[in-house]
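Hi C.,

You asked whether I'd gotten around to modeling the 260-residue construct. I have! Everything is below, sequence then structure, no commentary in between.
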Amino acid sequence: MILDTGYWKQHEYKGSFQHPVSSIQYPASSIHYLPTHYLCHMNLKAFASSFITKFIFLNRAFGARAFRLLDIGAGNHSASKAKRVFPNCEYHGVDMERTYNNTEADLNLMDAFYEMDLTKLDFSSIPDNYFDAIQMAHVIEHLYNGDDVVKGLLPKLKTGGYIYLEYPGEKSTRLPSMEGTLNFKDDKTHVRVYSVTELSELLKQNGFHILKAGTRRNSWFIMAMPFRIIKCWISGKKLQGNIFWDLLGFAEFVWARKGE
């Protein structure tokens, strides 16, 4: 099988091809073998998952290398999704319940799980100075003290470790209401709106360097919108608001690295 080379950007001065979203480089000489070479490490589900924004940043930081990941909000099959893309990562999950939309297979992929109420700010069971990355996607908007939670988790990162935060931005309060959440208030468990400015300042005050921050605009998800809409129509399901997040700027993110 040959991958359409139009799907990759060629950089002649490097003699390589670059994944259009994750920026992973491949030798130009191996372009005809990319599906076999790439999918021997990643199956098709993993390849699709690799376009998730938080995984794009982790891919850029670690690639195929082993690293320790602390995932805040480990429900919804998060361990399986992460392990598909990063089979060499050591996965530690945090959530209020082990079984929140997780199967036994998901739980078996976790190297550790910490069941806790984040708002109580007791993170003593999680080792300090241990993790290479923390990801916290669509969690803090459910916490009235999410800023304190983030601050309390920062000691868990090693020096040079990365943190990725994602949440509905202020613009989400002005978007139309839709099933599957398009307006902040569509989800009744949302309690507080955070901002790039607020979270970036918190991280900088704690010795972090902001590498990238702003409105999430994932070009892969924007290109996939027509197909997701058609799939809903064919299956007879209602359109979901999250289909339009990247086009309309529903979410914001902060990607930062812990300094010396």
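If it helps when you're writing up: DSSP finds nine helices and ten strands in the chain.

Thanks,
B.
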